[in-house]
Amino acid sequence: MSNIRTALEVIRKLTNQYLQNLDRRGDEWVVLTNIVDHDNTLNESAREKIVMAVYNISRESVISTYPPARAGNGQFAVLAAPLYINIHLMFMANFTGRTYPDGLEALSGVISFFQQTPWLTRSNAPDLDPELEKITMELESPGAVEVNYVMGMLGTRYLPSVFYKLRMLPFASSALLSRTYPVRGGSTIESPDTQGPQ
Length: 198
Description:
This protein is of the alpha+beta class. It contains 3 helices and 10 strands, in the order αβββββαββαβββ. The protein has a domain at 4-55 and 84-169.
Protein backbone atom coordinates (compact mmCIF):
# COMPACT_ATOMS: atom_id res chain seq x y z
CA MET A 1 0.00 0.00 0.00
CA SER A 2 1.21 3.49 -0.80
CA ASN A 3 2.06 5.86 1.99
CA ILE A 4 1.18 9.52 1.54
CA ARG A 5 3.69 10.67 4.12
CA THR A 6 6.57 8.73 2.52
CA ALA A 7 5.81 10.05 -0.97
CA LEU A 8 5.59 13.64 0.23
CA GLU A 9 8.77 13.38 2.30
CA VAL A 10 10.63 12.16 -0.78
CA ILE A 11 9.37 15.17 -2.74
CA ARG A 12 10.25 17.55 0.09
CA LYS A 13 13.74 16.08 0.47
CA LEU A 14 14.54 16.30 -3.25
CA THR A 15 13.18 19.84 -3.53
CA ASN A 16 15.19 20.92 -0.51
CA GLN A 17 18.37 19.35 -1.92
CA TYR A 18 17.88 21.26 -5.17
CA LEU A 19 17.46 24.57 -3.34
CA GLN A 20 20.46 23.85 -1.12
CA ASN A 21 22.56 23.33 -4.26
CA LEU A 22 21.47 26.77 -5.46
CA ASP A 23 21.94 28.56 -2.14
CA ARG A 24 23.16 26.63 0.88
CA ARG A 25 21.76 27.61 4.26
CA GLY A 26 22.19 26.22 7.75
CA ASP A 27 18.70 24.75 7.99
CA GLU A 28 16.22 23.40 5.47
CA TRP A 29 14.54 25.49 2.81
CA VAL A 30 11.42 23.32 2.54
CA VAL A 31 9.25 22.03 5.37
CA LEU A 32 6.21 19.76 5.17
CA THR A 33 3.87 21.29 7.72
CA ASN A 34 0.85 23.50 8.30
CA ILE A 35 1.51 27.22 8.26
CA VAL A 36 -0.90 28.05 11.09
CA ASP A 37 -1.55 25.93 14.18
CA HIS A 38 -5.09 24.97 15.16
CA ASP A 39 -5.14 27.73 17.77
CA ASN A 40 -4.59 30.26 14.92
CA THR A 41 -1.02 31.04 15.97
CA LEU A 42 1.79 31.09 13.41
CA ASN A 43 3.71 27.85 13.19
CA GLU A 44 7.20 29.04 14.11
CA SER A 45 8.84 26.11 12.32
CA ALA A 46 7.34 27.44 9.08
CA ARG A 47 8.79 30.96 9.37
CA GLU A 48 11.25 31.96 6.64
CA LYS A 49 10.68 28.66 4.84
CA ILE A 50 9.03 27.28 1.74
CA VAL A 51 6.00 25.61 3.27
CA MET A 52 4.81 22.47 1.50
CA ALA A 53 1.21 21.66 2.42
CA VAL A 54 -1.65 19.45 1.26
CA TYR A 55 -4.83 21.35 0.50
CA ASN A 56 -6.91 18.61 -1.13
CA ILE A 57 -6.97 14.91 -1.97
CA SER A 58 -9.03 13.66 -4.91
CA ARG A 59 -9.66 10.44 -6.80
CA GLU A 60 -7.98 9.86 -10.17
CA SER A 61 -10.78 8.86 -12.52
CA VAL A 62 -8.88 8.52 -15.82
CA ILE A 63 -7.08 5.25 -15.18
CA SER A 64 -8.98 1.95 -15.25
CA THR A 65 -9.44 0.19 -11.92
CA TYR A 66 -10.83 -3.16 -13.08
CA PRO A 67 -10.36 -5.79 -10.34
CA PRO A 68 -7.31 -7.94 -11.13
CA ALA A 69 -7.31 -11.72 -10.87
CA ARG A 70 -4.46 -14.05 -9.95
CA ALA A 71 -4.21 -17.66 -11.07
CA GLY A 72 -3.47 -20.49 -8.66
CA ASN A 73 -4.52 -24.15 -8.45
CA GLY A 74 -6.94 -23.70 -11.33
CA GLN A 75 -8.62 -20.76 -9.58
CA PHE A 76 -8.67 -17.03 -9.98
CA ALA A 77 -8.58 -14.81 -6.90
CA VAL A 78 -10.49 -11.60 -7.49
CA LEU A 79 -8.95 -8.69 -5.56
CA ALA A 80 -10.27 -5.26 -4.74
CA ALA A 81 -9.76 -2.79 -7.55
CA PRO A 82 -6.80 -0.48 -6.90
CA LEU A 83 -7.59 3.12 -6.04
CA TYR A 84 -5.53 5.95 -7.49
CA ILE A 85 -5.53 9.31 -5.76
CA ASN A 86 -4.22 12.76 -6.57
CA ILE A 87 -2.68 14.91 -3.86
CA HIS A 88 -3.01 18.64 -4.38
CA LEU A 89 0.04 20.42 -3.00
CA MET A 90 1.06 24.01 -2.55
CA PHE A 91 4.47 25.49 -1.95
CA MET A 92 4.20 28.82 -0.10
CA ALA A 93 7.02 31.33 0.29
CA ASN A 94 6.57 32.24 3.96
CA PHE A 95 9.10 35.09 3.98
CA THR A 96 8.38 38.63 5.17
CA GLY A 97 10.11 42.00 5.41
CA ARG A 98 13.67 42.06 4.12
CA THR A 99 13.63 38.34 3.29
CA TYR A 100 10.58 38.60 1.02
CA PRO A 101 12.77 38.60 -2.15
CA ASP A 102 14.58 35.51 -0.84
CA GLY A 103 11.24 33.72 -0.71
CA LEU A 104 10.49 34.62 -4.32
CA GLU A 105 13.90 33.34 -5.38
CA ALA A 106 13.35 30.08 -3.49
CA LEU A 107 9.89 29.70 -5.05
CA SER A 108 11.49 30.15 -8.48
CA GLY A 109 13.83 27.31 -7.56
CA VAL A 110 10.88 25.06 -6.73
CA ILE A 111 9.34 25.77 -10.14
CA SER A 112 12.67 25.11 -11.87
CA PHE A 113 13.10 21.80 -10.04
CA PHE A 114 9.74 20.42 -11.14
CA GLN A 115 10.20 21.78 -14.64
CA GLN A 116 13.37 19.68 -14.86
CA THR A 117 11.93 16.75 -12.90
CA PRO A 118 8.21 16.41 -13.77
CA TRP A 119 8.08 12.79 -12.66
CA LEU A 120 9.78 10.69 -10.03
CA THR A 121 10.94 7.10 -10.41
CA ARG A 122 13.37 5.01 -8.41
CA SER A 123 16.15 6.11 -10.76
CA ASN A 124 15.92 9.78 -9.71
CA ALA A 125 14.26 9.21 -6.33
CA PRO A 126 15.89 6.14 -4.69
CA ASP A 127 13.87 6.57 -1.47
CA LEU A 128 10.58 6.20 -3.33
CA ASP A 129 8.34 3.36 -2.15
CA PRO A 130 9.33 0.18 -4.07
CA GLU A 131 5.65 -0.32 -4.97
CA LEU A 132 5.60 3.00 -6.85
CA GLU A 133 6.79 2.81 -10.43
CA LYS A 134 6.27 6.48 -11.20
CA ILE A 135 4.55 9.56 -9.81
CA THR A 136 4.16 12.85 -11.61
CA MET A 137 4.00 16.46 -10.47
CA GLU A 138 1.63 18.49 -12.63
CA LEU A 139 1.55 22.28 -12.36
CA GLU A 140 -1.91 23.66 -11.59
CA SER A 141 -3.18 27.18 -12.26
CA PRO A 142 -5.98 28.05 -9.86
CA GLY A 143 -7.66 31.42 -10.28
CA ALA A 144 -7.37 34.29 -7.81
CA VAL A 145 -10.69 33.43 -6.15
CA GLU A 146 -9.68 29.80 -5.61
CA VAL A 147 -6.25 30.82 -4.28
CA ASN A 148 -7.91 33.23 -1.86
CA TYR A 149 -10.24 30.47 -0.70
CA VAL A 150 -7.38 28.02 -0.13
CA MET A 151 -5.35 30.59 1.81
CA GLY A 152 -8.36 31.36 3.98
CA MET A 153 -8.99 27.65 4.53
CA LEU A 154 -5.39 27.30 5.73
CA GLY A 155 -5.82 30.27 8.06
CA THR A 156 -3.36 32.68 6.48
CA ARG A 157 -3.26 35.74 4.27
CA TYR A 158 -1.96 35.54 0.73
CA LEU A 159 1.58 34.27 0.29
CA PRO A 160 3.39 33.83 -3.03
CA SER A 161 2.64 30.23 -3.93
CA VAL A 162 2.80 27.60 -6.63
CA PHE A 163 0.31 24.73 -6.87
CA TYR A 164 0.95 21.16 -8.03
CA LYS A 165 -1.00 17.95 -8.39
CA LEU A 166 0.83 14.77 -7.43
CA ARG A 167 -0.89 12.35 -9.77
CA MET A 168 -1.89 8.72 -9.43
CA LEU A 169 -0.64 7.58 -6.05
CA PRO A 170 -1.89 3.97 -5.96
CA PHE A 171 -3.60 2.19 -3.12
CA ALA A 172 -3.89 -1.55 -3.73
CA SER A 173 -4.93 -4.29 -1.34
CA SER A 174 -4.28 -8.03 -1.45
CA ALA A 175 -7.59 -8.71 0.33
CA LEU A 176 -9.50 -11.55 -1.38
CA LEU A 177 -12.98 -10.58 -2.60
CA SER A 178 -13.94 -13.91 -4.17
CA ARG A 179 -12.64 -17.00 -5.94
CA THR A 180 -13.58 -17.90 -9.49
CA TYR A 181 -13.07 -20.93 -11.70
CA PRO A 182 -12.47 -21.00 -15.47
CA VAL A 183 -15.28 -22.39 -17.63
CA ARG A 184 -15.72 -23.04 -21.32
CA GLY A 185 -15.34 -19.97 -23.54
CA GLY A 186 -12.75 -18.33 -21.32
CA SER A 187 -15.23 -16.80 -18.86
CA THR A 188 -15.28 -17.52 -15.16
CA ILE A 189 -17.85 -18.34 -12.52
CA GLU A 190 -17.80 -17.53 -8.86
CA SER A 191 -17.15 -20.23 -6.34
CA PRO A 192 -20.19 -21.07 -4.19
CA ASP A 193 -18.03 -20.39 -1.16
CA THR A 194 -17.32 -16.79 -2.17
CA GLN A 195 -15.39 -15.04 0.55
CA GLY A 196 -15.54 -11.46 1.66
CA PRO A 197 -12.53 -9.23 2.26
CA GLN A 198 -10.06 -10.71 4.69
